[in-house]
Structure formats: C-alpha cells, structure tokens
Amino acid sequence: MGRRFSMVAAISALPVLLGIAGCVQHEDGWATGYRPDHADKIAVVMPQGAPSISQQFFRDRSGYGHAGIDIVGRIGSPVIAAASGQVIVSYFEPAYGNRVTIDHGPNSAGLRTITVYKHLNSRAVSAGDRVERGQHIATLGNTGGLAGGIPHLHFEVQREVRPKVLRAVDPHTMWVNGVGQVSCFDPATSYDLAQFGATYPVPCN
C-alpha cells in the first residue's frame, strides 16, 4: 500500500515539478503552499537559513497523492539523518533513484517510525548501519526517472498504524520544535530521545 501510494504520488507530482522547473525559488527560507484541495493544511514556519520546500505533502480522499516534501538544492549538497536510527534500505532503483530508509524504532505502543530519502545523488550509508541525528547519509541529487530532472530531496515520514503496516504522514507534523515548525539540526542541542521528532534532513545555512 505504501509503495503504491509513493508511486502514484510521484507520477502525479511530475507535471507540477516540470511546470515549475524554471521558477522554483532556490533562496533559503521559502516554502510553497499546500494544494487548495488538501484538507489538512499546516501553517509552516521556515527558518531563514533552511533550504526551500518546492512541494508539500498531499493526500486526496482516496489516499493517494504526494507522500512527503520536496526540498530543493544543488546536486551534491549534504543530506543528513532527521533522527537517530538504523538504516534498513540503501539502494538505487530506476523510478526514485538512490534512496535511503532509516528505522527510528518503536514508540511506547511498539509502533515504528521510518524516514525515507529519495532522488539522492550518492549514498554514504549501507543497510544495517547505525546513524545519529544530523549524520551525513547522502548527497542531494536528481536521480531516478520521477525526479523530473530537478535537483531536490524527496523526504518522507512513515509511521506504523499497526505492526508492519506503514502510512505516510505529513513531515510538518513531526518536527522536534512542534507542528509546522521546521527544525534545523543543531549539534549543540540535546534532543529528547523518548519520542520521535524530526530535524530538517538538510543542513541550514
């Protein structure tokens, strides 16, 4: 189900990406709005130095749409782990290019959260590796046919709704600083390890 959601999401997003290829704002601190027909819009607060978001999460009434957020940047820019965990996937495939998936472990109910990073230019970790929040795991790219040739990171957060059944959720509901508060990683900050909270998967300037 999750894979079908992601495939349909990417296909539906491709015309949008191609249409904005020449006008996406690449300066930091900017985020596009949600689609008008998205029911659960979130007020997104972008730090001034956070690389910009060119497409938001979207799910239609049938359960399909865009399963994450797209962060624009230059090819080769660092991609970092949004939270500590174990790499469970690191490989290349034709549609999504280089991808990395990290399992962040179970919550108090025993249900896992994972993060997914797609269209990477290169991967710096392998399945089985333990990674820490903020660790360099890959570089931003435009690999895979569904990247539309636009350098960006497609970032997803997926949560188990029951054991082994994952559902994509809006990443803006999962930031450590609160809903809608895009949270840049700060190596000097002590993060709460008792519950999952994400930091931005690319370094802020």
From TrEMBL:
CDD domains noted in UniProt: M23_peptidase
Domain called M23ase beta-sheet core: residue spans: 65-160
Signal peptide boundaries: 1-26
Pfam family membership, one: Peptidase_M23
One GO molecular-function entry: metalloendopeptidase activity
SUPFAM superfamilies reported for this sequence: Duplicated hybrid motif
Keywords tagged on the record: Signal
Name of the protein in question: Peptidase M23-like protein
Organism: Hoeflea halophila
